[in-house]
Design goal:
Elements lengths: L29 H23 L6 H24 L5 H22 L4 H26 L1
Length: 140
């Protein structure tokens, strides 16, 4: 005799946070919200330090670090907010694109040509997209 397959559980639309047991205002755990913010801070410091090339810190370096860190943090948080509504292929493409554009920008700050930076960003973004697709495909 064959047995019936178990019905898959429905995932809740908002996950409770670990600290309070209630979902956060954005529907994400606080640790997941902090991840893009911390990444944005480190990305901004990295971009500013690359652009100054060992020289003194200027207002332009600080502005570049603040703006680039804020953009990466906002894009990362936005991607985390909509990732549940995307199919795995498009989600992997989005993570790969964000990673490739970010690393390509940092590579361009080192003084490389635009074509070299675009190529490096495309290669690294494709690798990240494939890795993300593998993770999403094996976990769903």
């Amino acid at each position: 005799m064959s047995s019936h397959a178990a019905m898959p559980r429905r995932r809740p639309t908002s996950r409770p946070s670990r600290a309070t047991g209630r979902p956060s205002r954005l529907g994400l755990p606080p640790a997941l919200i902090a991840l893009p913010l911390v990444t944005g801070v480190f990305y901004g410091f990295w971009a500013a330090s690359i652009s100054r090339r060992g020289g003194e810190v200027t207002g332009g370096n600080i502005a570049l670090g603040l703006v680039s860190g804020a953009v990466i943090a906002a894009l990362g948080l936005g991607l985390l907010l909509i990732q549940g509504r995307l199919p795995r292929e498009l989600r992997a493409l989005a993570f790969g694109t964000l990673f490739g554009a970010g690393t390509g920008f940092l590579y361009a700050q080192s003084g490389e040509s635009v074509l070299g930076a675009a190529g490096m960003g495309a290669v690294l973004g494709a690798g990240m997209g494939l890795a993300a697709f593998y993770v999403f495909y094996t976990r769903e």
